[in-house]
Structure formats: structure tokens, C-alpha cells
Amino acid sequence: SYVLTQPPSVSVAPGKTARITCGGNNIGSKTVHWYQQRPGQAPVLVIYYDSDRPSGIPERFSGSNSGNTATLTISRVEAGDEADYYCQVWDSSSDHWVFGGGTKLTVL
Amino acid sequence: QVQLVESGGGLVKPGGSLRLSCAASGFTFSDYYMNWIRQAPGKGLEWVSYISSSGSTMYYADSVKGRFTISRDNAKISLYLQMNSLRAEDTAVYYCARGSRYSGSLPFDYWGQGTLVTVSS
Fold first, then answer.
1. Which residues pair with B59 in a beta bridge?
2. B107 close contact with A: CB closer than 8 A
3. CB neighbours of A56 closer than 8 A, spacing ≥ 6?
């Protein structure tokens, strides 16, 4: 089955740029989606189709996908961005959704 | 506005059964694929199952296949998850989430707040 690998944690100072990676075999050939989950809350879609933002998501959130790595980039990080972030792909070979293990973003 | 409200969670003994419900509102439920996703305490997200808008196509994670059954009642605007032969490792918050109108392989744009299932003797 397809596996997505994320770093368990990323730390960044306020105002700086955070980059959260999602690794998978030839993930560039798939479409990646990203979710933000704040403590005690349900996940929220923040990036879909690799780099599109749903309405209401700040422009500070962006995404890219190439080769074996997809990346969620958060510019000008704010305290409110502190959350767990999950990448997701559809594995057409198994007809399964796959989530990465999640990355905890800490704002220092 | 779109709302998804899960119910039916609780404490159940290993080997027992439970039926979760997800009441939808604010959109044309019968047009959309729907999903169940779970999150064990302190762990990450795990997709459980999806069902097509008509209810004719269902897929399951390997961890629940043969034990869980997803269904929907478009007239009652509700999604269900029948969980049988429950195990301790099924303990989690269960979320329902809306998929796409067009395909089961498009992302989840709305999620409920979840219902907790605890499997313990």
C-alpha cells in the first residue's frame, strides 16, 4: 500500500516561513491535499490539488508537489498556525485514501 | 451552511457492535460522496470508508474490511457506519466528512466534530 512520510515536528519563529514535507514514491504523479487540525478540533482543508486554496484560507498558505516530495509552505507564520498538519492522496491502485502521519507545527 | 453532526459513539466491549450516524444539512446530500475517518487518541488520521452519492460504491480500509459497513439514506439525509466485531484498536474519534460531487478521489471539504468510540472491557 502507498505510504506518505511526514516529519513528526517542525518549529518556526513567528513571522518566518514554515515548510512541511510529505514524502511518497513518485508523489509528484499524484494530487496532494493538506489539512490543518488545531487541538480539540476537526481537520480543515487548507490546500487541495497540490497548490489551490479553499476560500477563507489565507494566501500565506501554499503548496507544491514534485518528484518524491510535496511541500506545504506557510509564510509569515502566526501563533494561530500552531496545529497538526496532514497530507493526503488518493491511491488509485488500491482505491484507498492515504494520510501522512502528521506534522506538529510549533510556533516558538 | 454545511453541517455534519455525528452521533452514536460510546463505550462498547470487545467483540461488540455499534452504529454511528452522521446527520447532514446545508447542502444537497444526495449529490455528494461521503467518508468516515477516525483518529485514535493522540494519533493521526486514518481513512475508514467512503460511499458514492448513490450508495452503489463503497470502499474500506484494510483494517476494517469485513467488520464495518458504510451506508447512507439520502431521504433521511444521513450517513451511517455499522461497526461489528469491535477491537480495542478501533478506539478513536470517528469523523464523517463530505467528499466531492464528482468523484470519490477528491478531497474532504467539510468535517463533523466527531464522535468518540471506546472499545474496552
1. B50
2. yes
3. none
Min Cα–Cα distance to chain A from B120, Å: 22
Average pLDDT on B27-50 reads: 96
Reported as a single tens digit per residue, the pLDDT across A65-108 is 999 999 999 999 999 999 999 999 999 999 999 999 999 999 99
Residue A76 C-alpha, separation from nearest chain B C-alpha, in angstroms: 25
Half-sphere exposure of B33 (CA within 13 A, CB side): 19
Question: Distances in Å between the alpha carbon of B8 and those of A70, B18, B37?
Answer: 37, 7, 15
Please answer yes or no on whether B111 and A102 come within 8 Å at the CB atom: no
Q: With contact defined as beta carbons under 8 Å apart, do B12 and B117 qualify?
A: yes
CA distance A36 to A45: 6
Nearest residue of A to residue B43, measured between CA atoms: A101
Q: What is the pLDDT of residues B93-116, one digit of tens each?
A: 999 999 988 877 789 999 999 999
Environment class of residue A95 by beta-carbon count within 10 Å: exposed (0-12), middle (13-18) or buried (19+)?
middle
